[in-house]
Design brief:
- The complex is a heterodimer of chains A (451) and B (286).
- Chain A has 451 residues and is of the alpha+beta class.
- Chain A is built from six helices and 24 strands.
- Chain A is elongated, with a radius of gyration of 33 Å.
- The relative contact order of chain A is 0.08.
- Chain B has one domain: Collagenase (Catalytic Domain) (3-Layer(aba) Sandwich), CATH 3.40.390.
- In chain B, α5 packs across α8.
- With 286 residues, chain B is of the alpha/beta class.
- Chain B starts with a helix and ends with a helix.
- In chain B, the strands form two sheets. A four-stranded mixed sheet of chain B has the order 1-2-6-5, covered by helices on one side. In chain B, strands 3-4 form a two-stranded antiparallel ribbon.
- The chains are: A alpha+beta (451), B alpha/beta (286).
- Chains A and B meet through α1, α2 and β4 of A and α1 and β3 of B.
Chain lengths: 451, 286
């Protein structure tokens, strides 16, 4: 190539370079016009400003793991000097409702995060030494106290927990939230259930047209509820963590009915129910019932004409510890003992059906003679119950019920009947366990079938 | 030829333009990084004047996920509990070593960082990890929220942790005679040490059950148990050992510890023990 051509190409190349070299316009859209550092700093100050922006601070119901644990309400008030005032409904005994000061920092973790850097109530959820059930050994309540910042939405701050990557939302707190926080503790007995209410509890969902029922059980230590369908061929269940509020409960995961997600349940003290209402007639109600959710035919074996059957409750054996004995039943046993002279107490309550002597309730005592309450058995075929009717005491039809037994004995004489259930569990021994439940009051006795 | 000359001139000009044309770019401005010092609390200042300045030891009590095991459910200390814990460490550990080992001893060989954790580090087998020493640089002390100066057993356990971890730091700087140590009770080491009662371990020549984990823990346990006991207490402990072999093993280990302190650091181990005992008594509120 001639040297002249080289110059020509060089000329053309330099011209092209000059015309385009300083042009930083590209057709591509500029995604980020800030450096990563600038963006992180902007996020940091955005979070800082947000935390300080709410005059009454922030509220978060922290569901640490909604497959096993419930929600713990925390209130935070952040100050510009790096301190935070906190209250929570973790424990009435520890007085966590009392505001306490500690430090926080907005720091860089895997992204911008809010960290509670010195101890306060929220750390009680992350104490390896304090775990509610053995399954959580060394894991406490699986809580975290470093929250990664994921932005804001509708005035709420969205975080994800550092360790378990669960979403946690901070919503603006009100002065009322702070004053009402102790009321969360008052809600706990309502969720646990009262001795004075009926024995059976259920969750009933209504999608506007169809109702479904689920048995309902709640564990106080984990704040976790399980609700399993009682209908054959309908195997839905709702297991949910429960958080307390002054007016009811909030659940996670949501109870999904007819495509709607229900999370907030309101307590009604008149009947002890909790109701969540959606739109278009959609509801979910946790309520009490006098009737067992599933009725059995177990009572039929006790009707007149059936073979002899004996059921026994013993105060010095495993029947006394059965969780199926209701509080009312235990209280009534205590009441008999209190009414008896010193040194005397109930030893057993045995139910003899179709014995050669007849059908009777056999009360035995420590330090006193036994009593036989002869009865007749009637069937309530519709309600699937037996109704026991008084015949005599020890064969004497004129004598009145002994005063110390009257209160206890009347539950067996329930004119509305008694439910009989063959339970699937055992109480240590191989004997089959039966429960007898009054249909009009929360009175339930647990027995072994003896013969 | 003329064209060539002309071209040359033009190209020179254009090169000059090309080289200089982008010089109007902005100069680097202020750093984007936040260099402002965090607010120093009274506690932070106390730490600076009692740990950072005299010993070049950083004390970290505020939570930092990078210095703790994130798979464990731990939490930072309550602020009010930090200084009392550090005062105990200062009195019993720093002061004792400074007195016996020389004023510069801990400055030269010390963890550069002490991490305080408020909660219990519970293991899945039910044991508690009381402390950690890592790479000769960092000591982590757990359970600082539970320190109770009126409870001798509680203080002794906390001090045991410090002494134990510091022995690790010393070992990580200067190794002990591992070969001689390993020959004393070679068959007693086991990973499930926690299944053995302490008296049971004593009778086969170990000062605690944890000492049976490996020779490093054995050395640290032997040295730290002697340090937290008075002369009379340790003598009584030895007097209670029934097995002559176990007694001989414990004495051989004690001799190796004494030798290590003399040879590696020119320190009288028994003088250190006496000083630690004196300082321990001063710390406990009766």
């Amino acid at each position: 190539m001639k040297i002249k051509n080289i110059y020509k190409y060089l000329f053309a190349a330099l011209l092209a370079l000059q015309l385009s070299s300083c042009d930083n316009n590209t057709d591509a859209e500029q995604k980020f016009d800030q450096t990563p550092t600038e963006r992180l700093n902007a996020q940091k100050s955005e979070l800082n400003e947000a935390l300080l922006s709410s005059p009454e601070g922030w509220k978060a119901v922290y569901f640490t793991d909604n497959t096993i644990l419930g929600g713990y309400t925390h209130l935070f008030k952040f100050a510009a000097d790096g301190t935070v005032i906190m209250a929570s409904d973790f424990s009435k005994d520890l007085k966590t409702q009392v505001s306490t000061k500690s430090e926080y920092a907005v720091q860089l973790g895997s992204t911008v995060s809010l960290t509670f850097t010195t101890k306060n109530w929220i750390h009680l959820l992350s104490d390896s030494y304090d775990y509610p059930v053995d399954a959580l050994l060394a894991e406490g309540y699986r809580g975290d106290f470093q929250f990664l910042y994921y932005g804001q939405e509708n005035g709420e701050i969205i975080f994800r927990t550092n360790r378990n990557n669960r979403e946690l939302r901070f919503v603006k707190a009100t002065a009322k939230d702070w004053t009402d926080l102790p009321k969360n503790f008052d809600m706990i007995p309502n969720v646990i259930g009262s001795d004075a209410r009926p024995l059976f509890r259920l969750l009933e969902t209504n999608d506007g047209t169809t109702k479904h029922q689920f048995d309902f059980s709640f564990s106080e230590v984990t704040r976790y509820a399980e609700a399993n369908s009682i209908e054959a061929g309908y195997s839905v269940n709702y297991n949910m963590g429960i958080g307390y509020t002054p007016t009811g409960i909030v659940v996670s995961p949501a109870v999904e009915v007819g495509g709607q997600k229900l999370t907030n349940f309101t307590y009604n003290d008149a009947d002890g129910s909790f109701t969540a209402t959606g739109t278009g007639g959609v509801t979910a109600v946790i309520k009490y019932t006098d009737k067992p959710l599933s009725l059995t035919n177990d009572y039929k074996a006790l009707l007149t004409g059936q073979p002899y059957a004996l059921f026994g409750f013993y105060t010095d054996d495993y029947t006394v510890d059965a969780p199926t004995n209701s509080k009312l039943f235990q209280a009534e046993i205590d009441k008999i003992n209190a009414a008896l002279p010193a040194g005397q107490s109930v030893a057993s309550v045995q139910l003899y059906f179709n014995h050669s002597l007849g059908t009777f309730i056999y009360y035995t005592f420590n330090g006193r003679a036994a009593l036989q309450h002869y009865v007749t058995v009637e069937e309530d075929a519709v309600g699937k119950k037996i109704i026991l009717k008084h015949k005599s005491w020890n064969g004497n039809t004129t004598v009145a019920t002994p005063a110390f037994l009257a209160s206890f004995d009347k539950y067996f004489m329930d004119t509305n009947g008694i439910y009989v259930k063959r339970e699937s569990f055992r109480l240590v021994y191989t004997n089959v366990v039966y429960t007898f439940t009054s249909s009009s009051s929360p009175f339930r006795m647990t027995t072994w079938k003896i013969n | 030829m003329k064209l060539l000359k002309y071209n040359k001139a033009v190209i020179l000009v254009m090169i000059a333009i090309a080289i200089t044309s982008c010089t109007h770019e902005e100069q680097p401005g202020e750093s984007q990084l936040d260099f402002t010092q965090p607010v120093q609390t009274t506690l932070d200042k106390w730490i600076a004047s009692n740990y950072l300045n005299p010993y070049n030891i950083n004390v970290q009590y505020k939570w930092n996920q990078n210095t703790v095991d994130n798979s464990r459910y731990l939490f930072p200390p309550t602020t009010e509990k930090v200084q009392p814990a550090l005062e105990i460490v200062q009195k019993i550990w720093l002061d004792s070593y400074s007195k016996i080992g020389g004023a510069d001893f801990v400055k030269k060989i010390s963890p550069r960082e002490i991490v305080l954790v408020g909660g219990v580090n519970l293991n899945s087998v039910g044991t508690r990890t009381l402390g950690l020493a890592e790479g000769g640089q960092r000591v982590t002390l757990f359970e600082t929220d539970y320190i109770d100066r009126s409870d001798r057993g509680n203080i002794t356990e906390f001090i045991h942790t410090i002494q134990h971890e510091y022995i690790h730091i010393l070992n990580q700087n200067k190794p002990f005679d591992e070969k001689a140590w390993a020959a004393i009770t070679p068959s007693g080491y086991t990973a499930d040490w926690y299944n053995f009662e302490i008296p049971e371990s004593n009778e086969i020549g170990f000062v605690t059950s944890y000492a049976r984990l490996n020779i490093n823990e054995d050395f640290a346990e032997t040295a730290s148990i002697i340090l937290i006991s008075s002369k009379a207490e340790y003598a009584a402990f030895l007097a209670n050992i029934e097995s002559p072999e176990a007694l001989a093993a414990l004495k051989a280990k004690e001799a190796l510890v004494v030798k290590y302190f003399k040879e590696a650091f020119n320190m009288d181990f028994y003088a250190l023990r006496d000083e630690a005992e004196k300082n321990t008594n001063a710390v406990i509120i009766n």
